[in-house]
Amino acid sequence: MTLPPKAQIELFDSHRRLTVNPWLMTLSILAVGLLMLGAWMAFFYAPGEKVMGFVQKIFYFHVPAAWSMMLSAPVLAVGSITYLITRRDLWDRIADAGVELAILFGIMVIISGPLWARKAWGVFWVWDVRLTSTLVMVLTLVACKIVRSYSGPQSKTISAGLSILALLNAVFVWYAVDLWSGSHPPKLVQKLEPRMFATLWVCVGGFTLTYIALLWSRLRIGSLETAVERIHMKVTEAGLDN
Questions:
Q1: CA dist., res. 30 & res. 70, Å (int)
Q2: Is 232 part of any domain?
Q3: Residue 77: C-alpha distances to residues 14, 17, 147, 233 (Å)
Q4: Can you say whether residue 122 is alpha, beta or left, with left for phi > 0 and alpha for psi between -120 and 50 degrees?
Q5: Whose CA is closest to 174, among 187, 191, 188?
Q6: pLDDT tens profile 223-234
Q7: In the beta sheet, which residues pair with residue 53?
Q8: Is residue 120 part of a domain?
Q9: Can you give the residue range of the structural domain that contains 148?
């Protein structure tokens, strides 16, 4: 059943239908292809590191995951700040999608980092400034999702405020290595052997395309969730919820 244009705008903020998007499909296929190429290059093309050996291969997934996590910082910041100003659901959906993706890639960072650290430092975890601030950032973002589920009518506003706090933490994470000389390796991308350098950037490209495809897909899902919420509100207002 096709809704009239006015009803579509009331539910979806637009009269456009949520059909299968060929651009999103193409982007998703490119992302998968680049990820597969990056994995092949990491294990078969890039040379082994003399000190770390095979464990160093984690580098090609740990760094792109961290990059993708940091990509979410401006997304959730713009979404949160604009939502607080305009109170439009579209910006809340953007903020929420940014938070979810930051958690996803942040968990990848938190898992892959200790696996690498076990070989480098002899322990899975040390309370290094960057490691600790990254963990705090992920936990803050998890708090955003918890607040959104259990804080009632003001949940979106409180979640937006926590998201802005996470943005400030993200800035701290980015500059932590430059400001404090902890256990975490410094930024040495420019000093990589050429094949390592090429492999890293293929992996970063694959993760970036994957991030964009996931963000796009999550926004489309969010649009459907908003429509369901609005239908529920209309049903409740009409006294039909019983």
A1: 22
A2: no
A3: 24, 28, 17, 28
A4: left
A5: 187
A6: 887 777 777 666
A7: 49
A8: yes
A9: 54-227
CA atoms of 10 and 233, how far apart (whole Å):
12
Of 119, 76, 113, nearest to 96 by C-alpha is 76
Place of tokens 């998201």: 163
13 torsion bin: left (phi>0), alpha (psi -120 to 50), beta (else): left
Report d(CA 57, CA 124) in Å as an integer: 17
Closest by CA to 129, choosing from 181, 167, 171, 170, is 181
Q: Which amino acid is at 19?
A: T
What is the per-residue pLDDT across 33-58, written as a single tens digit (0 to 9) for each? 999 999 999 999 988 877 777 888 98
In the chain, the number of structural domains is 1
How far apart CA 143 and CA 162 sit, in angstroms, is 8
pTM score, whole prediction: 0.82
Within a domain: residue 119? yes
Residue 60, Cα to own-chain centre: how many angstroms?
18
Token look-up 């973002």 returns: 141
Residue 129 lies in a domain: yes
Expressed in angstroms, the distance from the first to the final Cα of the chain is: 25
